[in-house]
Design brief:
Blueprint lengths: L1 E8 L10 H19 L3 E6 L7 E6 L2 E6 L8 E9 L3 H8 L9 E6 L11
Antiparallel strand pairs: 1-5, 1-6, 2-5, 3-4
């Protein structure tokens, strides 16, 4: 089953780029990526630009509306994600606990919906 691990920052300040603490955190991410590889987990993941670079879009009454930034105001900001394919939620939680973002913010674990029954011929 596929799970999206959403990485939110905001509870505690993260190390700043260029600092020794930031370099250690990035090494921890490299270690996490290596753990996924070593365990044979099918995965992908990316860091996201700051919310100041985001654009939100919605369509109402046939009109497209756009706005700068995220739609919802929140203290925590989505900073990145991992998409992993593991057998169950317990396994997803075990990997999520190893992500460095869990030390500074929150890792939200969301199962990917099985859309096969919704597709023609599914």
């Amino acid at each position: 089953m596929k799970y999206l691990l959403l990485l939110y920052g905001g509870d505690l300040p993260e190390p700043q780029p260029g600092s020794p603490e930031f370099d250690r955190m990035m090494q921890e991410y490299d270690g996490f990526n290596a753990l996924l590889e070593r365990d044979g987990i099918d995965w992908s993941g990316e860091a996201l630009e700051d919310t100041g670079s985001a654009t939100s879009l919605r369509k109402r009454g046939g009109r497209v509306e756009t706005m700068d930034g995220p739609f919802a105001e929140t203290k925590e900001q989505l900073g990145g994600f991992y998409l992993i394919d593991v057998p169950d939620l317990e396994t997803a939680m075990r990997y999520a606990a190893e992500i460095p973002a869990a030390l500074y913010g929150t890792v939200e674990i969301r199962p990917i919906m099985d859309t096969a029954p919704l597709l023609p011929g599914g």
